[in-house]
Q: What sequence folds into this?
């Protein structure tokens, strides 16, 4: 069915009438008495509906893009959050590691095996060999002393007086080891703990052998 | 809000979408067993249909809350979608085609749907300036004088002649007839 521009003019006039805004009028039904006019109205309405559909699809695309943007933003925010958490976790791990290192360092410092120490008493420094009173031969190591005694004595002999003092005091207290008491007093003198050395010497004087009494007497009076 | 949407305020539409998106998806996934992705697609269509009803003047005032209204559209879409599921797989744009077809008031919906698809295809094949001239005049209700200024034509009469030629061309494209590439 063909129509002319005159038919379109009629449709345009109908569309221009007041109250035609908004919903598209069903012109094809209204103008059904004229087949050409009806055909023109149908085409115009189809055009209108197709444009409506196109605009709606445009809005749909707009919302889809908006959704994608919102998701991308949320993901970026989540990544940032994870990074912050990772940073916090890393900081926590580093702090914990630093704490552990500090504890290890303090522990090492407290319980470290100290090497040979300088003998502060001049007399003892010269005559230290005279104050080694246990049997240092190989035979002496095998049965004469217990392992603990030998460990304490050897520690004294290598001039690790701080550790030796602790080991010797144990032997003295547990086994009334007279030689351990002697070495303990000598260790204290070497560590510049003369007052303690003198107290031990006076309090346990009778326990010590005559030889040890004499040696300590010389040491403490020099 | 309705006024803002009617005047094409995209932020109003986005605000609406943002506000009811999560409750709608939760409702759809819970009640209609839709996947989250499908429920999201469905809600986008719901908001677009809401926009359509406002922009075409079918919805001028709300007697219920916006949420109830949107959920009502969603309910109809979900039911319709389930009903048509066996006929053809529905994509988002198919939901909008169904909406326009159902809303057109035509009794022969099958024929109208076919004509609508042909008209959409024809419009896209035709391209500018014809597409813009026809859409400005018949959809946006721009006067011939406005279109003349907007598209820099000599006068309104020129636009009127072009409009007629463009409609004829569209008709041919809709019918699948060959169209000469003439300078419109």
A:
């Amino acid at each position: 069915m063909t129509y002319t521009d005159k038919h379109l003019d009629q449709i345009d006039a109908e569309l221009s009438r007041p109250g035609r805004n908004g919903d598209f009028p069903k012109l094809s039904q209204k103008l059904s008495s004229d087949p050409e006019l009806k055909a023109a109205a149908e085409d115009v309405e189809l055009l209108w509906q197709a444009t409506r559909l196109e605009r709606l699809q445009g809005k749909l695309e707009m919302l889809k893009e908006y959704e994608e943007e919102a998701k991308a933003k949320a993901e970026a925010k989540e990544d940032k959050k994870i990074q912050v958490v990772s940073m916090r976790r890393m900081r926590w791990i580093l702090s914990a590691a630093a704490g552990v290192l500090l504890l290890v360092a303090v522990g090492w410092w407290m319980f470290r095996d100290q090497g040979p120490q300088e003998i502060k008493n001049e007399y003892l420094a010269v005559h230290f060999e005279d104050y080694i009173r246990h049997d240092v031969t190989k035979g002496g190591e095998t049965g004469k002393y217990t392992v603990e005694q030998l460990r304490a004595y050897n520690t004294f002999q290598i001039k690790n007086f701080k550790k030796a003092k602790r080991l010797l005091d144990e032997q003295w207290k547990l086994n009334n080891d007279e030689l351990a008491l002697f070495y303990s007093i000598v260790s204290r003198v070497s560590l510049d703990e003369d007052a303690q050395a003198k107290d031990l010497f006076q309090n346990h004087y009778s326990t010590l052998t005559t030889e040890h009494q004499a040696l300590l007497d010389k040491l403490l009076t020099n | 809000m309705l006024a803002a949407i009617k005047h094409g305020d995209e932020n109003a539409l986005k605000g609406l979408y943002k506000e009811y998106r999560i409750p709608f998806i939760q409702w759809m996934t819970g009640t209609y067993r839709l996947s989250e992705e499908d429920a999201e697609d469905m809600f986008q269509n719901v908001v677009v249909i809401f926009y359509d009803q406002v922009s075409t003047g079918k919805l001028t005032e709300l007697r219920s809350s916006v949420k109830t209204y949107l959920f009502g559209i969603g309910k109809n879409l979900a039911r319709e979608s389930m009903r048509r599921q066996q006929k053809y797989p529905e994509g988002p744009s198919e939901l909008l085609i169904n909406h326009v077809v159902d809303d057109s008031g035509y009794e022969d919906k099958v024929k109208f749907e076919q004509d609508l698809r042909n008209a959409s295809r024809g419009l896209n094949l035709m391209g500018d300036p014809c597409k813009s001239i026809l859409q400005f005049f018949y959809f946006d209700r721009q006067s011939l004088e406005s279109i003349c200024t907007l598209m820099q034509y000599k006068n309104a009469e020129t636009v009127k002649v072009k409009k007629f030629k463009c409609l004829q061309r569209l008709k041919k494209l809709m019918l699948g007839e060959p169209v000469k590439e003439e300078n419109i």
